Inverse folding.
């Protein structure tokens, strides 16, 4: 792991620290930053060309699932990149669902009829729930595809409809890029019109990292920012992310050397500094990457 610059270490020393209050959620950056899309606002700059973060191997995921079970984990999340590009993704979902509720985050382009059937089968044989989150960043093809690539709106909407028809009701996840207060209502109306009569929607803020890193400001949290603030609202007090290279403070920063907190879960359970611009966003917006 490359050494952190001295100036960065000094800033980290001034940053407030938070402890892991409980280990509720484990995130797997299963395909690293390998994705079949290259969305303009992607917080970890995923794409099909020369991913900067390698995928996880199946053995690491299974070993972490077992360790997380011993530590009392309550849910698992699989993200990327695009998780359905991983050759073992269905078997790994099965393994996770044997332990806790599990969510997979996808752009939907690889969820064809056959894949939707397989997901229903996996969900049906588990005691725990399987959630599928599908990214959609607009209510029209023109609006969405400008950010996510030509044809992505049609593919994502078709995946949402397939899952809905099979009663595996997806969570549609959108990023608030234009400051549009009506985004939730507009998405809901579009989905209902498309036959998705039980829409579930999650709106996320823009994150100042990855392809939106230029939006980052020099601002960092200082200890005074947490005075009177319930730190348990921060997802790093109850989550860890597993990616190539070890365990990281949260899914937003997975793969960044400065956010690495250990080589395995047991070594990652201590306190962490809130020393990244994304920490400011989490503090200000109450962001959680989880479903709730």
């Amino acid at each position: 792991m490359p050494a952190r610059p001295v100036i960065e270490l000094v800033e980290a020393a001034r940053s407030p620290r938070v402890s892991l209050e409980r280990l509720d959620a484990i995130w797997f950056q299963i395909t690293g930053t390998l994705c079949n899309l290259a969305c303009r606002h992607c917080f970890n700059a995923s794409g099909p060309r020369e991913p900067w973060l390698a995928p996880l191997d199946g053995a690491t995921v299974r070993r972490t699932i077992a360790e997380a079970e011993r530590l009392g984990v309550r849910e698992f999340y699989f993200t990327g990149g695009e998780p359905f590009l991983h050759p073992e993704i269905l078997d790994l979902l099965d393994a996770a669902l044997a332990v806790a509720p599990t969510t997979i985050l996808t752009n939907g382009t690889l969820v064809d009829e056959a894949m939707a059937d397989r997901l229903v089968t996996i969900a049906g044989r588990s005691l725990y729930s399987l959630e599928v989150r599908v990214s959609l960043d607009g209510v029209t093809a023109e609006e969405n595809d400008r950010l996510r690539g030509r044809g992505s709106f049609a593919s994502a909407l078709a995946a949402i409809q397939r899952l809905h028809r099979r009663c595996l009701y997806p969570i549609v996840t959108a990023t608030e890029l234009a400051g549009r207060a009506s985004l939730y209502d507009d998405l809901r109306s579009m989905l209902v019109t498309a036959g998705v009569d039980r829409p579930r929607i999650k709106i996320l803020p823009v994150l100042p990292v990855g392809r939106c890193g230029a939006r980052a400001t020099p601002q960092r949290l200082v200890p005074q920012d947490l005075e009177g603030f319930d730190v348990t609202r921060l997802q790093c007090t109850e989550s860890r992310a597993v990616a190539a290279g070890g365990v990281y403070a949260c899914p937003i920063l997975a793969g960044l050397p400065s956010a690495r907190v250990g080589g395995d879960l047991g070594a990652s359970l201590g306190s962490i500094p809130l020393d990244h611009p994304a920490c400011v966003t989490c503090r200000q917006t109450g962001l959680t990457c989880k479903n709730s």
